[in-house]
UniProtKB/TrEMBL annotation:
Pfam families: Bromodomain
Record-linked InterPro entries: Bromodomain (IPR001487), Bromodomain-like_sf (IPR036427)
UniProt keywords, alphabetically: Bromodomain
Boundaries of every Bromo domain copy: 22-95
CDD domains in UniProt: Bromodomain (cd04369)
Name assigned to this protein: Bromodomain containing protein
Lineage: Eukaryota, Metamonada, Parabasalia, Tritrichomonadida, Tritrichomonadidae
Length: 229
């Protein structure tokens, strides 16, 4: 699924998790960037190409516009532990500290993952309700359109073009909502207009496009319609 931008609430949870980890008794070594002299690590920045520390990550979160995605913050947090293990060695006591911090982090991050998932589900549900309401109250048929750009996936372009032509033949409310649901669950970007909904197929996973094609072919077969060839 394509990533969506982190919400302010999710970033607040990320900040709270970071602050809580910083208070842990063994976190002191992770609070600031490594000082090659004070920490007796003269070659640290030669060995570690992506240095991270909790203090820097906390400041980035406080800026509120540094981390676009929760996964970017999660990546930097995991770098803190991984860098320590890489530089000091798997069997060092510092590596043991890193693994304990990682364990605590993984336990805490479940909260933000749940919030992200629930928020995503709620947004999809809102979209369905909005379109469903449009279908109920519109004086004429609401349409579903598919925007098409050159895709990076290896899926045959002709297959996609046939699907778009076929999907235009499915005009019932149930079919439109089902196609929207399949697309949404596979990362689709939508543009909701007054009289139609536009799905950008370039944002849908290839597996999702295959699901859309299969559903459309099945509906054509059930209705004794001829799928475009």
């Amino acid at each position: 699924m394509n990533q969506r931008k982190a919400s302010p609430e999710e970033l607040r949870v990320c900040l709270k998790i970071t602050e809580n980890l910083m208070k842990h008794p063994i976190a002191s070594m992770f609070l600031r960037p490594v000082d090659t002299k004070a920490d007796n690590a003269p070659d640290y920045y030669f060995q570690i190409k992506n240095p991270q520390d909790l203090g820097t990550i906390k400041r980035r979160l406080e800026e509120k516009n540094y981390y676009r995605y929760v996964s970017d913050w999660e990546r930097d947090m995991n770098c803190v532990w991984a860098n320590c293990i890489q530089y000091n060695g798997e069997t060092s006591y510092l590596a043991d500290f890193s693994r304990e911090m990682k364990r605590l982090f993984e336990k805490m991050i479940t909260k933000v993952r749940i919030r992200s998932y629930e928020g995503w589900i709620n947004r999809i549900q809102d979209l369905f309700e909005e379109i469903d309401d449009s279908l109920k109250h519109s004086p004429h048929q609401i349409g579903l359109q598919f925007a098409y750009k050159p895709l990076s996936s290896p899926m045959n372009r002709t297959t996609i073009e046939k699907f778009i032509r076929a999907a235009n033949g499915l005009t019932s409310k149930d079919d439109i909502l089902h196609l929207i649901q399949l697309a949404a669950l596979n990362g689709a970007a939508f543009e909701q207009r007054r009289d139609d909904a536009i799905i950008d197929l370039s944002t849908v996973k290839e597996s999702g496009i295959r699901q859309l094609v299969k559903y459309t072919k099945d509906r054509y077969a059930e209705n004794h319609m001829i799928y475009p060839e």
